[in-house]
Amino acid sequence: MEIDLTLNDDDVTFEAARSDTLLDVLRDNGYTGAKRGCDTGDCGFCTVIVDGEPVKSCIRPISQFDGADVETIENLGTQDDLGPVQSAFVDNAALQCGFCIPGMIMRSKVLLSENPNPDEAEIREALSENLCRCTGYEKIIDAVQDASTRMTGEADVAADGGRVPGDGACSGCDCFEGGVDE
Ligand code: FES
Ligand code: FES
Questions:
Q1: Which ligand is nearest to the CA of 44?
Q2: How far does residue 170's CA lie from ligand 2's centre (Å)?
Q3: Percent of the chain beyond pLDDT 70?
Q4: Among 11, 17, 24, 112, which residue is least crowded by beta carbons within 10 Å?
C-alpha cells in the first residue's frame, strides 16, 4: 500500500505493508531517530509527533496515518545546530545511553508548545509514559525547565547551542550584540 505523509514539512509517499507500524515505516526509510525499545507501547522510546500530539509509533498501524502531519526528531536540529530542547538536554547532562532521549524530547516539545512554563509536576506528568533506564529523572526535569526558559526568551540560545547569559555579561568574544571582545 502507498502512504502519503507530510513528514518534517515535506510531502512524501512511502510504500508499506499493511501490517507495518508507523515506526517500521519511519525506520525503514532512514528516519532512525525514533527508537525501537519495547515495541509494545510501554517505554515511549518511539514517540514522534503526529498532528501536534505525541504518538507511540511502535503500536500504531501505518494505515492510520495516510495524510497525517508527522514530525520526527530529525526535524529539530542538526549535530552542529541543535534545537533548544535538544541543547537543554545536552547542557544539563540529561542523558547517558541516550536511547530514550528522542522520545523524551519529542514529548517535551509538545508539552512546551502547549504549556510554555510547566512546573515540575506538569513535566513529570507529561513524561510519565516515557521511561529511562539510565539516569533517573532529575536531570531530565532540569532539562525541560531549562528548555522552557530558553524558549520563552528568558535566556537566548546561541548558535552553537550554548547559552548566552541573560544579563548580556558576555566576555571574551563578540558573539552577540552587546558582547565585549576582550
Ligand atoms: S518502542 Fe514504542 S513504546 Fe516502547
Ligand atoms: S539515557 Fe539511557 S535509557 Fe534513558
A1: 1
A2: 34
A3: 85
A4: 11
